[in-house]
Amino acid sequence: MSETLANLLQENRRFEPPAALAEAANVKADAYTEADADRLEFWATQARRLDWTKPWDRILDWDNPPFAKWFVGGELNVAYNCLDRHVAAGNGDKVAIHWEGEPGDTRTLTYADLHKLTCQAANALTDLGVRAGDRVAIYLPMIPEAAVAMLACARIGATHSVVFGGFSVDALAGRIQDASAKVVITADGGYRRGKPSALKPTVDEAVAQSPTIEHVLVVRRTGEDVAWSDKDHWWHETVETAGEQHEAQPFDAEHPLFILYTSGTTAKPKGILHTTGGYLTQASYTQHAVFDLKPETDVYWCTADIGWVTGHSYIVYGPLSNGATQVMYEGTPDTPHKGRFWDIVDKYGVTILYTAPTLIRTMMKWGDEFPAAANLSSLRVLGSVGEPINPEAWMWYRKNIGHDNTPVVDTWWQTETGAIMISPLPGVTATKPGSAMRPLPGISADVVDDEGNSVPNGGGGFLVLREPWPSMLRTIWGDDQRFVDTYWSRFQGMYFAGDGAKKDDDGDLWLLGRVDDVMLVSGHNISTTEVESALVSHPSVAEAAVVGATDPTTGQAIVAFTIPRGSVDSEGDAGEALIKELRDHVAKTLGPIAKPRQIMLVPELPKTRSGKIMRRLLRDVAERRSLGDVTTLQDSTVMDLISDGMKSAKSDDE
Ligand code: WT7
C-alpha cells in the first residue's frame, strides 16, 4: 500500500476547556449539530448578526462552481456594520483602539472617533474622485489610519488593496498596476526597531511607474522630510479638514471589498478577491466563536500586520464588526527590549491574544524570564496562526503566556479562505498541543489521498474543502482561469488548499505544511513539520527548519537547520555532540526513517516578512553543502550562504 503522507508524530496530551469559560462560552457544542443539520441555514443565522439594509433572496448560488455567490440580492455597508451601528447603540464612547506606537506614544480612539475619521476619509476620497468599484492601494505602517483607510474605502464601495509596508518598490508597483489603482494612501514612514523607517520614497518610485495613480494621500507619522509632487496630499490637510457627515450607502453582498496579493514563492503574486456580505459574516462570526470575544469585558490583541489577511479579518473587520476593544501596536517585539509584548499585555490588561508560531518560538528562544517579568493574569484565550505550531511551542505558549490554564486555539486558514476554517472552540474542544482539531461549524474540511478519497483516521494526505464557505475567495483578480487551475482542478469538485494534513485516531486534524515541502525519503512521504516538531521537542532546541536535499541512496535526505536555545553550549565539540544527540532524538521520536542525514546549528533562520521559513533558500544551501560537514555555531559558512540567498531574494516580494 502506498502511503500519501506518513503519520509519524504521536501526541497524547489533552487539555479540557476551563469549566467557567465553557459555561459562559459564546458558542457551545450545539453549533456543530445545528450546522450539520442545515449548513446554509446555519450561515444565514450568522449573517443575521450583521445589519442588512436589504435581505438576501437566496443564501448561496453555487450553480456555476467554482464561482460562488453568497447572500444573493442582499445589501449592506461594511463600515456601517463596523462603526455606525455601535455608535447608534450608545457605544460611541467605548474604546475601539488602544494604539501604542513603538517609541511609546499612545492614542485612544473610541468608536465615535473612529466613525468620525472614517466619515472624513470617505468624504476626502470622494472629493479626490474615488467612486464605488475603484481600487485604492494602502501602504501604511501599523497606525490607526490604516484601519480608517480600509473602512473609508469599504464605506464608499472602493476596493482596497493593502500592500505590506515592508515590501519593495517593485512589489508595490506590481500590485498597483495589476489592480489599476487610482489612489495610494501612505505615510512618511513608521517606527521600526527604534528608528523611523521611511515609506514615502518607495511610493514615489512606484507611482512614477504607475500611470493609473491620480492622487497620493500621505499621513504624517515620523515628521521626516519627504519629497513632494502635485499628486501628493497631506492626510491632516485633506481628511482631517473634510466634513464629518457621511451617509454610508448600501452595497450588494457580492460587491468587491478588497484584493489582497498572496506572494506566490515563484510565480506572479495572486490578487485574491474578497467580497462583502459573505466575507463579513464569516470574519465576524469566527471572531465571536473562536476567540469567545465578549465586547463588554475583553481587551483583544492581534499582533499581525494590517498588510496580511490576519490584519484584515482579525484587526479590522472581525473585531470592529463585533464592537470589540482592541490593542494595536506599531513596532517590533524587541524594541526597546525583549519583554515589550508582555509589557503591552500587562499595561492594557489584554484578555485575548492572537499571534504566530514564529513569534512564539522566538520568545521561547529569548527565554522564559521576559514573560515572567510581566503580569499576564488577564489573558484567558490564546490564538495561533500562520504555520503549523509545534507541540512544544504550543506547550510553551500555554504554560508561559497562558499560566497553564488558558485554552490555546490553533487556527488554520489562508488569505484565500478569508477567515478561520479549522480551529478548536475554546469553550467546547479538548485541545491537543499541535492540532488545529476540527473544522468549524458550517465548514467541510477533509483529508484525501492522491485520488481524492477521504483518508481513514490515522492517515495523511491533502487538505481539501468540500463545500463552499461564505468568506471564500471569489476569484484571482483579472484571472479566472488561474483561479480554477490553482484551487479547483487538482480534485474534482473540491478546493485544494495546497497543505498536507493528517487525521489522528480520533479524526482530529494536524496540519503538516505545504505539500511542495514534503520530502520523499526512500519511498516515504515525510512532512517537514513533523521532523521540525520532533527537533523542537528536544530541550536544547528553540527552532528548526527541515528540508529535503538530493541524496544518491535515498532519493531525498532530511537536512535540518537548528537554532539551539539561548542557554545551550553548542560550540565546537559540544556542538558535534549535540548534533549526534538530536539525530538520535528524531530517530527515537519518529522512527529511523526520519533521522536527519545532516543537522546544522545556526543562530538564525531565513524568514519571509510574514514569518514563514524560506525553505526554498534552505534547500539551495543544503544542496551546496557537502555531506561530511559538521556545522556548529562557530562555522559561519552556512550563515554566509543563507545571507547571500536572502540578498538575492530581496528583489522578490519576500
Ligand atoms: C498558509 C496560508 C491565515 C492567515 C495567515 C497566513 C499556513 C496558516 C496555519 C495553522 C498550519 C497554517 C498554511 C496555509 N497556515 N495557519 N494554524 N497551522 N499551517 O495566511 O499567508 O495565506 O498562508 O499558512 O500553509 O496554507 P497565508
UniProtKB/TrEMBL annotation:
Cofactor section: Mg(2+)
NCBIfam families referenced in this protein's UniProt entry, alphabetically: Ac_CoA_lig_AcsA, PRK00174.1
PTM comment, free text: Acetylated. Deacetylation by the SIR2-homolog deacetylase activates the enzyme.
UniProt-annotated binding residues for ATP: 386-388, 410-415, 499, 514
Domain AMP-dependent synthetase/ligase, residue spans: 86-469
Natural source organism: Asanoa siamensis
Stretches assigned to the Acetyl-coenzyme A synthetase N-terminal domain: 30-82
Family named by the database record: Belongs to the ATP-dependent AMP-binding enzyme family.
UniProt protein name: Acetyl-coenzyme A synthetase
